[in-house]
Design a protein that fits this description.
The chain has about 625 residues and is of the alpha+beta class. The protein is built from 13 helices and 36 strands. Helix 2 packs across helix 3. The N terminus is likely disordered.
């Protein structure tokens, strides 16, 4: 699946029933839903009580005919549910849906906005947070530029932190204790990778907010309310330490496909642009900043739209967009699939469109020496299959020209209709949906040679020559599946590649044993060095074993979160566990929000900085354990 791990989740029968087609699948007797506590229910369609609300009635009578069927490519409820209630109501009052909204009363607009988002109007606002910073804690320190370049922590996306920056050694790792915790209000998942700059921790959230938190106390310096869930990490533009004239910007994207630049010092909007006009477009991979350009990967949820009988599938085109970092103006765009054309007619009389897909749901890595960036791509949504799907692609930094590509798996065409059977949009239900979700890594082996390293949902890891994309080696570390294998992030340090694997016991190919956990490979050869097995046995998919998120290497250690909510620090040479803690239990938060952790998954990874380990916890999607907390640990003295 090509939009992200959430898209993979939509292919699972249990998860799809929760989010997209409950009535249809239950009627078919196709699924057994995993148990979900009422407190974890956040979305319309998950909570039966919401279906009895006034907003549900307004939706059924005025909106469902278009949005449930995809008429005229109206955004489906799948996407509407990720918007804030403020964004939905604004569209009805003075936005694109004003003609339709004119027939509704103010109360009806509010009711349907709250129903679709599963949240009360105003719940996203945080200006009245009880722990707003005061005095010195409210000020940004211009003597402390960003410690990391972005999601990959450095331009090559090694997810490696120098020991001088992390200030964490093996002895200190064993003495980590909770320093403070911040509870994300009105949220059930935490999947935005945190960053540090100016004495603050910056992180996005499910509730559509991006927070700037004082690093020492957790008080709120500012919070910016985006229009929809922010699942990307946050990127901060660099400045020279002590430069009081600096005006750094904070970059991120949301699931509506919008890209934002916000002023670091006061949280005000500098610019905003829509990365793709397609109604299913989303930004999942964190944009990458290099010099004067912001490189934005564009993904979508159109694979799920294909389930609707009235939807003509499919015409989304994955792309990478280069923006001027100060203005947001588009500098170049590289489409990764040709424009769709009619490929025939469905049984229902709709056009069958293609090619489509080849989304990018990982953050680009930068090869400054060669002047190129690397991304890995998803599958095709519809026929015909194309050459850049399930591939690693090298683009020219200046022009976006494709220099080379390596296609790891050809002919992978798939969409969610292959599971639901609710439309005839499935191109081939036997295709594996083996997207690349994890970001690429540029790193050296112990032989001194650089390789581009890529991990696939199939469970395979590849080492490629950065000059031409030729395969140097490939190693299988996991069974793989639409929701398994290497999902979001790898890390490298001292010639070793650390690979997290989430291999679900419930499904997947049978030609390789499930291998959830952490694997270490020699970068030069791909040879396995050691592995740590996630041995939890789960009664439901909500605690599927393995590591589905991102990981971090520092000072001969690997910091990795598990889908069972356990955060561990490993010895990088041997795989021995040096420290672990369960992030699931609720703790007292500095802002008074009731909060607990869950699966540490998606694009989220822990970071280490000045003796602290910082990690959001709670994926709350893909049938994984929900949560709404940011945890900050420090070394006990």
């Amino acid at each position: 699946m090509s939009s992200d791990s959430d898209s993979a989740f939509l292919k699972r029968p249990a998860a799809l029933a929760i989010r997209v087609l409950i009535p249809a699948l239950l009627a078919l007797g196709a699924v057994l839903l995993p148990p979900i506590r009422a407190a974890e229910i956040n979305y319309a369609g998950r909570n039966p009580e919401l279906e009895k609300s006034a907003g549900a009635q307004v939706y059924r009578e005025n909106c469902a005919a278009c949005h449930d069927a995809g008429v005229n490519r109206a955004p489906q409820r799948l996407l509407l549910q990720d918007l804030t209630p403020e964004a939905i109501r604004s569209a009805l009052v003075d936005g694109a849906m004003r003609p339709q909204g004119s027939a509704l009363s103010d109360d009806q607009k509010t009711a349907v906005a709250e129903y679709l988002s599963g949240r009360k109007l105003g719940a996203s606002a945080v200006a009245d947070a009880p722990n707003m910073c005061k005095g010195a804690a409210a000020k940004f320190d211009l003597g402390e530029p960003p410690a990391f370049t972005g999601w990959g922590l450095d331009l090559a996306s090694t997810h490696s932190i120098p020991a001088a920056v992390s200030r964490l050694d093996k002895a200190g790792a064993g003495r980590l204790t909770l320093k403070w915790a911040f509870g994300f209000p009105n949220s059930s998942r935490s999947r935005s990778h945190p960053i540090v700059a100016g004495g603050a921790i910056l992180v996005g959230n499910h509730n559509g907010s991006v927070y700037a938190l004082d690093r020492e106390t957790g008080c709120v310096r500012w919070a910016y309310a985006a229009q929809a869930e922010v699942r990307t990490g946050v990127v901060v533009s660099p400045w020279r330490a002590g430069d009081r004239s600096a005006h750094p910007l904070v970059y991120f994207g949301d699931v509506r496909g919008e890209v934002y630049a916000v002023n670091l010092l006061d949280g005000t909007l500098a610019w905003k642009m829509r990365a793709d006009a397609h109604p299913a477009a989303v930004i999942t991979g964190t944009p990458t900043l290099f010099e004067d350009k912001l490189y934005v990967p564009v993904s979508s949820v159109e694979e799920a739209y294909a389930t609707s009988p009235g939807y003509a599938c499919c015409n989304f085109r994955g792309s990478v967009v280069a923006l001027d970092a100060r203005s947001g103006a588009e500098k170049w765009r590289t489409w990764l699939v040709d424009s769709a054309a009619t490929q025939g007619t469905s049984k229902g009389g709709l056009d069958k469109l293609g090619p489509s897909g080849v989304a990018v749901w990982n953050s680009p890595s930068i090869d400054a020496a060669r002047g190129q960036l690397y991304v890995a791509t998803g599958d095709n949504y519809s026929l015909p299959a194309t050459g850049l799907s399930d591939a690693v692609v090298a683009l020219d930094l200046a022009t976006g020209r494709i220099r080379w590509h390596y296609q790891a798996l050809a002919e992978d065409t798939w969409n969610v209709a292959c599971v639901t059977k609710t439309s005839d949009s499935c191109p081939d239900e036997n295709d594996p949906d083996a997207d690349f979700g994890a970001g690429t890594v540029l790193a050296k082996g112990k032989d001194g040679k650089e390789l581009v390293l890529a991990g696939q949902k199939s469970g395979w890891v590849y080492g490629l020559d950065p000059a031409n994309g030729q395969l140097t080696w490939k190693t299988r570390v996991g069974r793989g599946s639409p929701g398994g294998g290497v999902h979001f992030g790898m890390a490298s340090e001292d010639g070793i590649l650390f690979v997290p694997v989430t291999d679900n016991y419930f499904y997947g190919p049978k030609d390789f044993p499930p291998s959830p956990g952490l694997h270490a490979l020699d970068i030069a050869t791909g040879h396995p060095l050691w592995n740590y097995a996630s041995t939890i046995k789960c009664a439901t998919m909500q605690c599927a074993p393995g590591m589905g998120g991102s990981i971090t290497a520092t000072a001969g250690m690997v910091i990795a979160g598990d889908d069972d909510g356990i955060l561990r620090i490993f010895d990088g040479a041997s795989g021995k566990v040096l420290w672990s803690i369960d992030t699931k239990p609720g703790v007292t938060t500095v802002n008074g929000v009731t909060a607990h952790g869950g699966a540490i998954s998606g694009g989220v990874g822990p970071i280490a900085y000045k003796g602290m380990v910082i990690v959001p916890s709670g994926y709350g999607f893909a049938s994984k354990l929900p949560g709404n907390i940011l945890l900050v640990y420090g070394v006990a003295k």
